[in-house]
Design goal:
Elements lengths: L1 H19 L2 H18 L9 H19 L12 E3 L5 E3 H6 L6 H19 L3 H12 L4 H8 L3 H25 L1
Antiparallel strand pairs: 1-2
């Protein structure tokens, strides 16, 4: 079980984070996913790959969490610290004074664009966001997405089409504002 957790934990966490947009919730939901997997491993019948089964659990937990949550939290661009790596944070002033880091203007622009993209992603419905993350970020094929979300293949295609269209409109509105 430890090997399976180590193999999938980062992909599960990143997928959940992209759907729920909150690092604390994503960490908790990732842990809940693996607890569910451990509790239900005897029920795994091998009708799909283990990867598909565990992603289905993660996505279902995340979508249920998002439905219960009334308000999405969005991080401020005015943070006093910056992510240096997955496990380290650095004071912004120290980060900006370091000659070994990329151009601060470029970093700020990329971070702002990333924030806009995440905010736009969060404006989609949970179903649209889930299918978009699984297809365009995780690279799952339509059949696997249908299994993970427990929907028909045609539903995956229509949700993905609507999600991409909605995301494009949202992004264009953001860019027009800025």
């Amino acid at each position: 079980m430890e090997r399976l957790i180590l193999k999938y934990q980062h992909r599960i966490y990143n997928t959940i984070l992209k759907i729920c947009a909150n690092t604390h919730d994503a960490a908790e939901l990732t842990q809940d996913t693996f607890v569910k997997v451990i509790e239900n491993i005897a029920r795994f019948q091998g009708r799909s790959s283990f990867y598909t089964w565990i992603f289905r659990i993660a996505v279902n937990l995340t979508l249920n969490h998002c439905r219960r949550k009334t308000k999405l939290q969005i991080k401020s661009l005015e943070a006093k610290t910056v992510e240096v790596s997955d496990s380290r944070r650095k004071l912004l002033k120290d980060y900006l004074s370091d000659d070994n880091v990329p151009d601060p203007e470029e970093v700020a622009q990329n971070k702002e664009l990333g924030q806009i993209a995440l905010e736009a992603l969060n404006r989609l419905t949970e179903e649209q966001r889930a299918v978009l993350v699984l297809r365009d970020i995780e690279g799952m094929n339509y059949a696997r997405i249908a299994v993970v979300l427990n929907v028909q293949l045609g539903t995956v295609r229509s949700r993905l089409s609507r999600a991409r269209s909605s995301l494009k409109q949202i992004m264009e509105a953001f860019l027009d504002e800025g």
